[in-house]
Write a structure and sequence with these properties.
This protein is an alpha+beta fold. It has helices at residues 62-74, 96-111, 118-126, 132-137, 171-175, 189-193, 202-208, 210-219, 241-249, 267-273; strands at residues 2-18, 24-44, 47-50, 79-85, 141-144, 149-152, 159-164, 225-227, 234-238, 256-263. The protein has one domain: Ribosomal Protein S5, domain 2 (2-Layer Sandwich). Helices cover 32% and strands 29% of the residues. The radius of gyration is 18 Å and the shape is globular.
């Protein structure tokens, strides 16, 4: 059983305040793209993951953590061999680890015939990361609170050119930086959709990582562009696939990227429908 673990983009990201517990309140718009990692699941006596991710201990990998969490929650004694085809960069703001965890929960729930409902899987996923539930629900969403309160959304589905400047941004470092803006007003989804979109983390990340600033400045010459999440990846919005692909061919040396279609319904749900 092969299932996609698609990337997400934060089409906008506003930090509206810091809570007493240290977490931040935010407003963001998640949308999927038809590009990402892929996981293959095969029945096995024990849990196995291949190939290993460089620099990540097996028990720290979100895929293994998700699988063990599902085993513990259900008392399931079954195992699986999970093969990961990794395409999304780590620390890129594309949600690769969270998407891998979500696809693991969804895939093993199907492989092991556990019958857990989507909301039960999302509750488990929340223990692994704030972004995991949106990948499990599988629909574009306006997220509020600490990113855990979702409202379904249907933004346009353009073509995107997503570029990685080759640096890894640590999300905790950005959220703990005193220079991060934390005073954006709380607006309704309708107000956000009708206003110019921005990412409150972008200025700080560009200051800390000149590579991001340089790549974003280049991309803005071709299309409306922003950073996703806390970076480091940036994306430009195009009406036509051909225009995005032409821009990709001209990308600066050292930048890696891909062209993908925006999807309000996750490719994961489409793949599950076909099983």
């Amino acid at each position: 059983m092969r299932l996609p673990a698609p990337a997400k983009l934060n089409l906008f990201l506003y930090i509206t305040g810091r809570r007493p517990d240290g977490y931040h309140n935010l407003q963001t718009l998640f949308q999927f793209v038809d590009f990402g990692d892929e996981l293959a699941f095969t029945p096995a006596p024990e849990l196995m993951l291949s190939p290993p991710l460089p620099g990540v201990a097996l028990e720290d990998n979100l895929i293994i953590r998700a699988a063990r969490l599902l085993q513990a929650h259900t008392g399931c004694p079954q195992g699986a061999h999970i093969h990961l085809t990794k395409r999304l960069p780590m620390g890129g703001g594309l949600g690769g680890g969270s998407s891998d965890a979500a696809t693991t929960l969804v895939g093993l729930n199907r492989l092991w015939r556990l019958g857990l409902a989507k909301h039960e899987l999302a509750d488990l996923g929340r223990q692994l990361g704030a972004d995991v539930p949106v990948f499990i629900h599988g629909h574009a969403a306006f997220a509020e609170g600490v990113g855990d309160i979702f409202t379904a959304a249907s933004p346009p589905e353009p073509w995107y050119l997503v570029l990685n400047p080759g640096v890894e941004v640590a999300t905790p470092a950005i959220f703990n930086d005193p220079a991060l803006p934390r005073n954006s007003p709380v607006l309704s989804l309708e107000q956000r959709l009708s206003s110019p979109w921005q990412n409150d983390c972008e200025g700080l990340v560009k200051m800390r990582h000149p590579e991001v600033a340089k790549l974003l400045s280049w991309l803005l010459e071709y299309a409306p562009s922003r950073m996703t999440g806390t970076g480091a990846c940036v994306f430009g919005t195009f009406d036509r696939r051909e225009a995005a692909e032409q821009a990709l061919k001209k990308a600066p040396a050292g930048a890696r990227g891909f062209v993908a279609k925006g999807c309000n319904r996750s490719p994961l749900l489409t793949a599950l429908d076909a099983l």
